[in-house]
Design goal:
By secondary structure, this protein is an alpha+beta fold. It has nine helices and 20 strands. The chain folds into three domains: 76 residues, OB fold (Dihydrolipoamide Acetyltransferase, E2P) (Beta Barrel); 64 residues, Dihydrolipoamide Transferase; 200 residues, Chloramphenicol Acetyltransferase, CATH 3.30.559.10. Helix 1 packs parallel to helix 2.
Length: 442
């Protein structure tokens, strides 16, 4: 008998939401079967079994949030998740005297006739690829040693929103013909399949006006718990600064007019400015983690991205040490993966600050809530035209952006925060500094 424990994803993860059990108590499972799903850092991680076994007892119910390392279930026959880097290892409740029994199951290394990379793939992934006639080369593996996992195949077969709608509408995905790239099932395919069934009796009269109680999904529950804890546990303070965007807008127009370069957005330039400011003030590149302080050696910047499944916060890596072009490339790729539900664990986590830009909606400013374990978040409003007095006290037209910086007072003092925000504004108002070449590795 062994314990399954809440896995740890990333350096700063302290707890996780067990959003769903895929095996019922008392049920047997096979190697490669999906056991449970953990949501943390706004990414769902599906955990598969590495060996055959039986789920003897569930200790943590779906929807509960528990600390890393907490036993969540008891299993028989050494049931353990497949990927040690992204799953909890089965923890024996009693020591074993057989050293061989304590070793993880050997993996096929793809040597010899008939033993290619596909033999590393999880059984459920191989079954899905066979059922849907998928070429393995079209599936991007995320498992250890290039192993294709079940969720990798599902990302090709159906979008996350399509899978969710299928569950709500009771549509069998195996009977839906996808219209997306490579036959991927999209949300509109589910809607079409649902509409093709005989319609049910629609609500009319007073019944249509009744209040409906909606059970939140796992993502909404995780978000609610996270922001509630952040506002309750993190002593926020805020600073606001206006940035003159005339020079930056002109530089951005010049860059985007050059067809040979990567097009950049205001968000890309803000991420680059935050990275350079963190390099100038390394004392700001720290977070509060319980009873300790964690300092980071590079500037990783999170972006709040709206998706059909809720908000996601992927992270642009090393934004201070790389180039503006690379920042734009990273950000565009992360946004695409966030909106298609294909973010990997490596796309999220770590870093001290995130950016939330609501300017495209016309909002003049945003007072955001810090995303744990970050120590800061920058709220960005819409650019607007205003008159300010010039050097001769005459009215001059400016284009300004309102930046609101939320800080964790446990790790950041007001004076340092003010200097940091001023450094960001100085970079935006002197944007040629954003074009500094990527720093060469030491």
């Amino acid at each position: 008998m062994s314990d399954l424990v809440m896995p740890k994803f990333g350096l700063t993860m302290t707890e996780g939401l067990l959003s769903e059990w895929h095996v019922a108590p008392g049920a047997e499972f096979r190697a490669g079967d999906l056991l449970f799903t953990v949501e943390t850092e706004k990414v769902a991680n599906e955990i598969e079994a590495e060996t055959d076994g039986k789920l003897a007892e569930v200790l943590v119910q779906a929807g509960e949030t528990v600390p890393v390392g907490t036993p969540i279930a008891r299993v028989e026959n050494d049931g353990a998740p497949a990927d040690d880097s992204a799953a909890p290892a089965a923890r024996p409740s009693t020591p074993t005297s057989d050293p061989a029994a304590a070793q993880p199951p050997a993996k096929i290394q793809g040597q010899g006739h008939g033993q290619g990379k596909d033999t590393l793939d999880s059984p459920s992934a191989r079954k899905l690829m066979a059922e849907h006639r998928l070429d393995r080369t079209t599936v991007e593996p995320t498992g250890r040693d290039g192993r294709v996992m079940k969720e990798d195949v599902l990302r090709v077969i159906a979008t996350p929103l399509a899978r969710r709608l299928a569950g709500i509408e009771g549509v069998d995905l195996n009977k839906v013909e996808g219209t997306g790239p490579k036959g991927r099932i999209k949300a509109r395919d589910i809607e079409t399949a649902a509409q093709a069934r005989p319609p049910g009796q629609p609500a009319t009269g007073d019944a249509a006006a009744q209040v409906t109680e909606i059970t939140p999904d796992a993502t909404r529950r995780a978000t609610a718990q996270r922001v509630s804890a952040a506002k309750r546990d993190i002593p926020h303070f805020y600073l606001t600064h206006e940035a003159d965007m005339v020079a930056l807008s002109a530089l951005r127009s010049d860059i985007n007019a050059d067809g040979a370069t990567q097009k950049v957005s205001v968000t890309h330039m803000l991420i680059r400015a935050l990275g350079l400011a963190l390099e100038e003030m390394p004392q700001m590149n720290r977070i509060w983690a319980g009873d300790r302080i964690i300092a980071f050696g590079r500037a990783d910047i999170g972006m709040v991205v709206e998706t059909p499944d809720g908000l996601r916060i992927p992270v642009v890596r090393n934004s201070g040490g790389t180039s503006l072009d690379d920042v734009a490339n990273q950000a565009n790729g992360l946004i695409e993966r966030a909106r298609t539900g294909s973010l990997a664990s490596s796309d999220v986590g770590d870093g001290v600050i995130s950016i939330s830009n609501v300017g495209m909606f016309g909002a003049s400013s945003l007072t955001p809530i810090i995303n744990p374990p970050n120590a800061m978040i920058l709220g960005v409003g819409a650019e607007r035209a205003v008159f300010r007095p010039d050097a001769n006290n005459a009215p001059a037209l400016r284009r300004e952006l309102t930046l609101t910086l939320a800080c964790d007072h446990r790790i950041i003092d007001g004076a340092d925060a003010a200097r940091f925000l001023s450094a960001v504004v100085a970079l935006l108002e002197n944007p040629l500094r954003l074009l500094r070449p990527a720093r060469k590795p030491a």
